[in-house]
DNA sequence: TAGATTGTTAATCGATTAACAATC
DNA sequence: TAGATTGTTAATCGATTAACAATC
């Protein structure tokens, strides 16, 4: 029998698992994952925080600190088992499950994303592309059919969708966003050049390529000014 | 006549202009720029840090603090002139000059980037795409010719190139990177799934889409776990 | 002049690094 | 057991926020 105090503790435990982890840590987690995959491919099955820190250009202290937010994955005097740590971080990142993704916009970027083979490796299945352009409808891109944006509601009601990727211009994006909310989609990968407003319960990841490019021009221009 | 102490002071001044600005500030700068452009398009010509803070979801204090790293662009009792601030941030971001860009890789992503009209607005001119695939060579993509990667050296020696965009798989990317260094290219926009190693004098901006997607699955899975 | 809002200093908060006891 | 390296606490560093004097 579970009494109320135990329930409280379970609640607190979950809070610790999900919340409280700082953005900075979450930002670094995928990078650890990428490096560990490479190590595994290189046949290395054991690594210390010190070695990994040299490889990645971060401090060993930060690596240990980061990982210990989620659990003690290492062993004193030994270091970390690469395969085990890789798998555990994968679990933390939610990569042990499968996600259905739709892509709004079958332009160049949408098509590029639809063909991205890396997705399937990470459990992301691109199920459909949507566009307004009549000449694209019915075609397939990377094995995925292009549907008319008008059929978005019908499609999502029939097929489970976890992630919607937005790859359309900002004027259209602001009109599509509420439709995604109405359809109860809870994860949005936004490539449009605008910070779309979503309710609290929707998880949004923005990829603002133009901002990335401006950081590059800033750094270049600072280092190599014209006069 | 400039004595050594004056020279020292000039040096210190330049240090302040370029260095010392924290990554966090530089990261936010393009976002201010994007919002100011929108305000300008909306016909708003004056804004206070308080109003802007509500719009962007940051503190007014942070906005004022950030901007004052580069100069006093506002006026007490009035706020900021939108057009003026937009222009000044543009200058800081190095957007008053024109950059020649080449794109390594004419696959889906390379093609999508070549067609990106936003670039031209920001003074980025895509001059050529490079690929290994014989069937692509000689075609044009978004008005830009696709050349063979073997002609990279010849091309760059004849044509000035400020920015090289890398849109090829990581195994090829690690082989192309040293060639870019040898050609004296000082700015790299890297879309390959690996942290390429460049000398200190090369400015690199990484866009790791798979890491972005993992942050999305992490946040989604934390909020909506399977069991 | 009074009101508004910046520029800037000081206080707080959070993240990173250092240190070391625990332990494999 | 001795050596190595983690997990974790404490110290430092940096970034954000608050406060307010300067000034338009």
Explain how this protein is built:
The structure is a homodimer of 227-residue chains. The first copy, chain A, is 48% helix and 18% strand. By secondary structure, chain A is α/β, with parallel strands linked by helices. Chain A has a seven-stranded mixed β-sheet. A three-stranded antiparallel β-sheet of chain A has the order 1-3-2. The N and C termini of chain A lie far apart (76 Å). Chains A and B meet through α2, α6 and α10 of A and α2, α6 and α10 of B.
Which features characterize this protein?
homodimer, 227 residues, alpha/beta, 7-stranded mixed β-sheet, 3-stranded antiparallel β-sheet, 10 strands, globular, disordered N terminus, DNA-binding
Write the layout of secondary structure elements.
The structure is a homodimer.
Chain A: H1 4-18, H2 23-41, E1 46-47, H3 49-56, H4 60-67, E2 74-75, E3 79-81, H5 82-92, E4 99-104, H6 108-114, H7 117-121, E5 124-131, E6 140-141, E7 144-148, H8 152-158, E8 163-166, H9 170-182, E9 187-190, E10 203-206, H10 209-223
Parallel strand pairs in A: 4-5, 4-8, 5-7, 8-9, 9-10
Antiparallel strand pairs in A: 1-3, 2-3, 6-7
Chain A binds a DNA duplex (24 and 24 nucleotides) through helix 4 and strand 2.
């Amino acid at each position: 029998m579970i009494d109320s105090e135990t329930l409280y503790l379970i609640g607190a435990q979950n809070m610790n698992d999900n919340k409280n982890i700082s953005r900075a840590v979450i930002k670094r987690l995928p990078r650890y994952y990428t490096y560990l995959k490479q190590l595994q491919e290189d046949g290395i099955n054991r690594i210390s925080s010190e070695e990994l820190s040299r490889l990645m250009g971060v401090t060993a202290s930060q690596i240990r600190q980061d990982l210990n937010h989620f659990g003690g994955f290492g062993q004193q005097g030994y270091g970390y088992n690469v395969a085990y740590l890789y798998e555990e971080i994968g679990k933390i990142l939610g990569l042990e499950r499968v996600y259905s993704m739709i892509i709004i916009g079958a332009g160049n970027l949408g098509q590029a994303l639809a063909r991205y083979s890396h997705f399937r490796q990470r459990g992301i299945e691109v199920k459909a592309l949507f566009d307004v352009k009549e000449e694209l409808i019915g075609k397939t891109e990377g094995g995925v059919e292009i549907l008319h944006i008008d059929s978005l509601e019908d499609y999502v009601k029939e097929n489970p969708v976890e992630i919607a990727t937005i790859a359309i211009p900002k004027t259209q994006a602001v009109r599509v966003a509420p439709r995604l909310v109405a359809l109860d989609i809870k994860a949005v990968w936004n490539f449009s050049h605008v910070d779309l407003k979503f309710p609290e319960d929707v998880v949004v990841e923005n990829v603002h390529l133009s901002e990335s490019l401006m950081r590059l021009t800033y750094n270049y221009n600072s280092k190599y000014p014209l006069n």
